[in-house]
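Renewal narrative, Specific Aim 1. Our central claim is that a sequence can be written position by position from structural information alone. The example that follows is taken directly from our test logs and has not been curated for this report. It begins with the structure tokens describing the chain, in the order in which they were read.
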């Protein structure tokens, strides 16, 4: 009887270790994809798991150096992302190009913030449509495209068009990247203000499924096209 009890206890312990291992792996994977997330985003993503366990693992992973926490409740994959020296460009005639380095640094920080904002939109679709995990869109040609995911038989792309930068959508008009599967592509456009919508419509971009504003706390407000 004692042996059976011990075996059962070992099985429970093994299962708990496996669950923690899988959660750590998912946390790292999300940070690799998005780059920057806050604690509430993690808790909402892992809503089906014990939130106390997720919070504990985030703290533990920071302590062990697996991830970093540059400010309370905000997590990055790598602390180097906040170090300007990490973004050194090739030297020109033996001299450092400080201006180019700083531009690259600022662009990367901006992309981290944008992808974190786009993750709030993804979470909405995860709750409503069981969306699959997102992938990052890292494109020099389409820098305003942030994340993509699969849901309800369609590819969804999350774009962000800041006020005053609406003309960037002309890039999609002139060159569609999914000519063979355009019927399966849906695009959600993050905007600063709903007043941008009329100006964006004139570009007649394929697959626009909706517009959304995202505030600093992650609250989303959608508008159908």
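The sequence written for that structure reads:
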């Amino acid at each position: 009887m004692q042996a059976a009890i011990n075996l059962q206890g070992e099985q429970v312990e093994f299962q708990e270790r496996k669950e923690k291992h899988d959660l750590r792996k998912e946390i790292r994977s999300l940070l690799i994809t998005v780059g920057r997330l806050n604690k509430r985003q993690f808790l909402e993503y892992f809503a089906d798991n014990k939130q106390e366990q997720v919070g504990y693992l985030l703290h533990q992973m920071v302590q062990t150096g697996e991830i970093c926490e540059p400010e309370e409740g905000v997590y990055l994959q790598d602390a180097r992302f906040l170090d300007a020296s990490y973004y050194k460009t090739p030297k020109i005639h033996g001299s450092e190009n400080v201006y180019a380095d700083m531009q690259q640094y600022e662009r990367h920080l901006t992309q981290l913030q944008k992808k974190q904002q786009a993750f709030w939109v993804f979470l909405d679709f995860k709750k409503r449509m069981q969306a699959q995990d997102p992938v990052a869109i890292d494109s020099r040609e389409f820098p305003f495209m942030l994340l993509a995911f699969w849901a309800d038989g369609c590819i969804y792309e999350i774009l962000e068009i800041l006020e005053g930068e609406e003309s960037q959508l002309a890039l999609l008009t002139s060159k569609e990247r999914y000519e063979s599967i355009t019927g399966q592509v849906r695009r959600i456009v993050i905007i600063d203000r709903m007043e941008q919508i009329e100006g964006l419509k004139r570009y007649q971009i394929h697959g626009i499924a909706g517009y959304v504003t995202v505030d600093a706390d992650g609250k989303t407000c959608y508008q159908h096209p």
